[in-house]
Amino acid sequence: MSDARQLPLFPDQPASPDDLNRHSPFKHTLALFQTHLMQSGKTEHTVKAFTSDLHLLAEWGGENTPIGEFTTTTLSDFMRWLEHGRGIPCSRKSYARRVTTLKVYFKWLHEIGAIPYDPAVPILQRSGQAPLADVLDERETAMALSYADTLRIAEKPDARPALILRLLLATGIKKAEAARLSPKDVLRIAKGQAILLVKHGSPKDVYKERRIEIDGELLDVLNEYLGQYRIDETLFTCTPRNLEYILADIGVGAGLDKKPSFEMLRWMAALRDYQAGMEPDV
After folding, report:
1. Is residue 1 part of a domain?
2. Which of 19, 89, 144, 238 has the fewest CB atoms inside 10 Å of its own CB, making it the most exposed?
3. How far lies 87's CA from each of 56, 84, 100, 217, in Å?
4. Helix (H) or strand (E) run with residue 212 in it
5. Domain count, the chain
6. 50-72 burial string, b = 16+ CB within 10 Å, else e?
7. Is residue 6 scored above 60 in pLDDT?
8. What is the rounded distance in angstroms from the CA atom of residue 276 to the CA atom of residue 90?
9. Are residues 104 and 143 in the same domain?
10. Model confidence, pTM
């Protein structure tokens, strides 16, 4: 059998990393880089995020730019453009990930011999403490709960907003975890007492699974909700995005200046646990 490499479908496009060199157009590296990420065990989410970041680099620097023309100076200019010239806010988290994308991408190009040096090595992550999370104070929390409870006794009663709000304040679960919940995940152990099972489908995430006690007040709202909605497999019949909209609507209805969200309520749950003396590793 011949060990000659298979020719690419399009002659000007590389068939493997061995075909890349400093003159290769940036756009011809992306598919091979994606393959490298997947073979390295990166998740689909990471591959998509890194690819999106590199598309921004193509938008700024040109997709036909030879990869050997990217320097530390041009990459620094690109990061400044993301922060100040693009016209779209670049959060601290997004900035950090995009620096990581550049470092992983150009390290790969250097390791396969496509470029003589790695221009991303000197690019630094931002130092310093992250800003404190924005949370509702006690008065704002009471306003949100009060408004959500008025919806339970409206002309057309709806317990879902109150359920979502109270559930997140009590448990701090993530959006994806809430979307996966099933009525079977609520184990009723006694009158007014239950355990919420937060489960994950992937074996590698089994350490994230946990059991959280929930009180009778939350159970009462849950019972109202189950009587109002036709539940099949998942507890919430709407999309995760709609759950975010419901939280935002609570903020508007309660007259809050802040916008409640899964992230905010997760921080609030952690803060409440800390103030109650719960050990950080529990």
Report:
1. no
2. 89
3. 13, 7, 22, 46
4. strand 210-214
5. 2
6. beebbebbeebbeeebebbebee
7. no
8. 35
9. no
10. 0.57
